């Protein structure tokens, strides 16, 4: 297997049936789909997975399904989104016990702590496990902004803080700063649905963490970049950009688009998004399918060439 989480590590959706129940068979299909497209690292329970819409028992059952499907086939990163230190510690221990390779740590959703209190919150969770942890630096979705200096200090305080998913304003500049300050010891993951992928890799990002629906194109892009074919990587990226920008209108819109593409590709049996969610209207659906169609057409042309 590749180095843990290097290259492309998509965030998987949690599929639901039309009646709103978790679709465990669909989740297995998503894992199979991502691995078949070339992914050797997978994550779940980041925001694209709708983790805050799952009940505690559903979260455990979904984690079991995911781990059983991915075990021995891909490195696994599990998001920990809980409002209390105790709840986060419990989830962290559970993920490690079930074989997770890393955790993704989020600020609590209610009254997020700041400064030293926040550092201690993260320390308390990371200290419960021996596996690496990643910090989700995404103020647009978490409401919590931290400085580069705060993250650098965290690497001194938390020995198993090995990754940061960088989704702050001007994210590629932060990747630069973190790489320089830590000598590459803190490995940066580019998020934001993949809209900065080429620039992020050029600045030393360890991986991109996009959605899963068109992950085959991200894998192609990374392989081109790793082989030294920057122009080829840019060609793939520029072809993807209209779709990526269309999806990025909001988190819930992104989730709805990803599920629609997976449904259209026969990976899952329903596009259901739990409330409070968002449904695509006829105009959204028409534009999404047009963009995906153009993406597939360009991929076929490149393969023929």
Short précis:
About 50% of the residues lie in helices and about 10% in strands. With about 300 residues, the chain is α/β, with parallel strands linked by helices. The chain has a domain at about 5-215: Aldolase class I (TIM Barrel).
Please characterize this protein's 3D structure:
- The protein is of the alpha/beta class and 305 residues long.
- The C terminus is likely disordered.
- The radius of gyration is 18 Å and the shape is globular.
- The chain has a domain of 209 residues: Aldolase class I (TIM Barrel).
- The two termini are 30 Å apart.
- The longest helix has 23 residues.
- The protein is 50% helix and 11% strand.
Descriptive labels:
305 residues, alpha/beta, TIM Barrel, eight-stranded parallel sheet, globular, disordered C terminus
- The H-level CATH homologous superfamily of the domain at 7-215, spelled out, is Aldolase class I
Number of strands: 8
> So what's the CATH class of the domain at 7-215?
Alpha Beta
Q: What proportion of the residues is helical, as a percent range?
A: 40-55%
Output mean pLDDT: 91
Assess the beta-strand content as a share of residues.
5-15%
If you consult CATH, what is the topology of the domain at 7-215? TIM Barrel
Number of helices: 12
Radius of gyration: 18 Å
The helix/strand series, from N terminus to C terminus, equals EHEHEHEHEHHEHEHEHHHH
The CATH architecture of the domain at 7-215 can be given as Alpha-Beta Barrel
Terminus-to-terminus distance: 30 Å
